[in-house]
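ABC exporter ATP-binding subunit, pasting as requested.
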Amino acid sequence: MNTDLQKKLLKDFEKEHLTNNIQNNVINQNKDLIEVKNKNEVFLEVNNLRKQYNKKAKPAVNNISFKVLAGEFHAFIGANGAGKTTTIKSIVGAYAEFEGEIKISGISNREKSSRLKLGYIPESARFPSKMSSYLYLKSMAELNGLTPKEAKEFTERILKEFNMWNLRNVSPNKFSSGQKKKILLAQSLSNNPDLLIMDEPTANLDPKSRIAFFEILKDLQSKGKSIFISSHILSELDIYANALTILDGGKIVFTGKRNQDETKNKEIYKLVTETELSNKLNSRAKTLKVEIKDYHSSEANTYIVSSETKKSMNEFIKDVMYSNRIVKFEKYHLSIEELYKKFVILGSVHTNNQADEEENQEIKNKQEDKEKPKKEEKQKNS
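Structure tokens follow.
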């Protein structure tokens, strides 16, 4: 940080707007985490969803509830068998029978009109053997309700936007995995949906194709669409997702904004300094009730600093700037991997205990049902 900028920031402290000014002028914030637009509008609402494949089996998902807001890039994560695919298939209408309620842009997903608000990209798909990508997309657009003229205009526009116009006469079956994903994504956009749902969309894609695919999704998010994506690649989701839902054993163990759990009533920042914080600054932090934790990173002298009040944080950072050089100062978000480890470890205990309780209760109920006739007979005889 140069001297002029250092002086400017110190002047900002006098106005008691330190944390805001530093973020606006100094911090290299993660620009990929796009802010939610129309944040109060709900594009997907799942209430008490329960799906059981047969009476003897445990529910694949058990009484789960969560929301996806307008403009969110919402990660949906969990281990194999956690219930992700069951949930997604229930949302998109692949399962007609389930308990609970699912709404898409306020419309029950049992209503056909809700499909107009939804775009779905499966993990894989088959394409007609003798149909060009242009004809395929145009035909699917017409099936989604567009007129032939509208379908033609949409197909031309989307192929050009996705840089695939020169492949319009080629069958999708001849495309690479990344190109096939683009066609599936293009198909899902023909009805201009509010919500895009994806199940492992980047599986089998090379790094270049993954980046290109996510850049398209980020652009769609910036235009107000909600992205709901299931993936096992947490580091990839970490770049883009600003909200997430974690499933474990058919139950939700966390749902909400990335920083929702850690930042309740707290100011939490990541601080990188040119030199190590002095003992004097550490003592000053204790006086101001600012907590400092070492953060293991490729960058030296990296800390996580937190405080109950912005005023205390401002005072502490002011002291740091007088005696040290701040390389970086930014809002801190737990990584998705950190959140997953935290809540699945806690959740697994809860889920397993809950499952044991339910199983024990079921055994108890069956035993009581068997003994009930005997008790009634005994009461009659007495």
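Note for the archive: The CA atoms of residues 112 and 293 lie 52 Å apart.
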